[in-house]
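Why do we care about 3D structure at all? Because function follows from shape, and shape follows, mostly, from sequence. That is the central idea of this module. The next example makes it concrete: a single protein chain, its amino acid sequence, and then its structure expressed as tokens.
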Amino acid sequence: MRKSTIIKDLQGMLAHELPGVKYIDKDWGQLTMDQPPVGWPCILIDIEGVDIKQLTDGNEHARATVVLTVANKRTTSGSAHAPRAAKEKSMETIDLTDDVHRLVQGYCAEGAEYSPMKEQSFFRMNDLPGAEVYMMRYITSYKV
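And the structure:
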């Protein structure tokens, strides 16, 4: 099985289920550029690493860490004294992570050779000024 299959399956499913997300692609460093070539909000997908275990029958078992980066430009204040509409808008990115999780947790494309995705971790990154960026890690496995 190709690792790119996992990325393409997730990309297709998320694009179908989340039509409001402007950009869904493999992560090739877009957010590290001075002017990221993405639409906002965006979801970037990559394989962070693969651990290989040798099986006694001569086969190999792979355990892959899949990272989804959910990012959006921050355009409004969520202050307790901000208007209600502004506060709601300020929560769009964190709410999008809940939508992504609902779709990815347990996801396995029909006929796929990898196991259903299981959440490993979630955290916020603070290195993109003016944007909110969250990293969501999931584990899947497959035979090599």
